Amino acid sequence: EAGVAQSPRYKIIEKRQSVAFWCNPISGHATLYWYQQILGQGPKLLIQFQNNGVVDDSQLPKDRFSAERLKGVDSTLKIQPAKLEDSAVYLCASSNRDREQYFGPGTRLTVT
Amino acid sequence: LAKTTQPISMDSYEGQEVNITCSHNNIATNDYITWYQQFPSQGPRFIIQGYKTKVTNEVASLFIPADRKSSTLSLPRVSLSDTAVYYCLVGEYNQGGKLIFGQGTELSVKP
C-alpha cells in the first residue's frame, strides 16, 4: 500500500513570497490533515478535511494560509505572503475509520 | 482534549527495556491513549493505542492503570534504531480524530 505522498520535500523562499505544498493521501482515506511542525516542537494541526469539507481549521492563520482538497482526494496548502516564522516542516496525514493517522515525509520550508 | 505531560528526554543503552510515562490527569471517559514515534526528517508513526489495562503489539506494550490518569509506553530491548521522539496523545477518536501533540520525549539509545 502506497503511503502519503508530499511534494516538494524542501522549499526555500524569501519573506512575502508565496508557496504551495501538495499532498496525496492513502487511497480511500476520507480524512486528511495538515500539520505545522516547528523545530523542537510537536506537530500542530492546521486544518482537517473530511472528504472535501473542512472539519477543523481553528488554528489555520486564515489571513495568509489557505487549503483545499480537490474532489476529496489530493490537497494543497498555500501560504501567501510568507513570514519568517512560517519556517517549519509541513506534514500531511490521512486516516480512515481506524483512527490511526498515517503521515507523509513532510515539506521543509525555509523562509529567508 | 486532555493535556499530557511526559519527560523531555531519556537516555538508555542497547538491549535495555525503556519505560516512558505520560501523565494525563484530566482524561475524559471517551478518551483513548495513543503513542506516536517520530524519527528525524520523517512524519510521526503510530505505535500503539489503548483505553485501559494493557495492550501489546509487536513493537511495544502500553500499560494503563485503573484510574487512567497516566500511562506507560514500554519498549523491550531497545536498539540504536529506536532513537526517536515519542509522543503521548489523549483524545476521543472516531473516523479520524483531532490529535494534539505535546513536546514529546526524546529517547536516545546508546551502544
Write the topology of this structure.
The complex is a heterodimer of chains A (112) and B (111).
Chain A: E1 5-7, E2 10-13, E3 19-24, E4 31-37, E5 44-50, E6 53-56, E7 65-69, E8 75-79, E9 88-95, E10 102-103, E11 107-111
Parallel strand pairs in A: 2-11
Antiparallel strand pairs in A: 1-3, 3-8, 4-5, 4-9, 5-6, 7-8, 9-10, 9-11
Chain B: E1 9-13, E2 18-23, E3 32-38, E4 45-50, E5 53-56, E6 61-64, E7 70-75, E8 84-91, E9 105-110
Description of the molecule:
- Chain A is built from no helices and eleven strands.
- Chain A is mostly beta strands.
- In chain A, the strands form two sheets. In chain A, strands 2, 4, 5, 6, 9, 10 and 11 form a seven-stranded mixed β-sheet that branches. A four-stranded antiparallel β-sheet of chain A has the order 1-3-8-7, with no helix packed on it.
- In chain A, 36% of the residues are buried.
- Chain B is mostly beta strands.
- Chain B has a five-stranded mixed β-sheet with strand order 1-9-8-3-4, with no helix packed on it.
- In chain B, a hairpin with a 6-residue loop joins β3 and β4.
- Classes of the chains: A mainly beta (112), B mainly beta (111).
Briefly, what is this?
The complex is a heterodimer of chains A (112) and B (111). With 112 residues, chain A is an all-beta fold.
Kindly, what is the distance between the CA atoms of the first and last residues of chain B, rounded to a whole number of angstroms?
Answer: 38 Å
Question: Major beta sheet of chain B, specifics?
Answer: 5 strands, mixed
Rg over CA atoms of chain A: 13 Å
Which range best describes the helical content of chain B: under 10%, 10-25%, 25-40%, 40-55%, 55-70% or over 70%? under 10%
Q: Which structural category do the helix and sheet elements of chain B fall into?
A: mainly beta
The arrangement of helices and strands of chain A along the chain is EEEEEEEEEEE
Largest sheet of chain A: 7 strands, mixed
Distance between the termini of chain A: 37 Å
SSE string of chain B? EEEEEEEEE
Q: How is the largest sheet of chain B built, in terms of strand order? A: 1-9-8-3-4
- The protein's oligomeric status is heterodimer
Q: pLDDT under 50 segments of chain B (min length 5)?
A: none
Which protein chains are joined by the largest interface, and how many residues does each one contribute? Answer: A-B, 27 and 22 residues
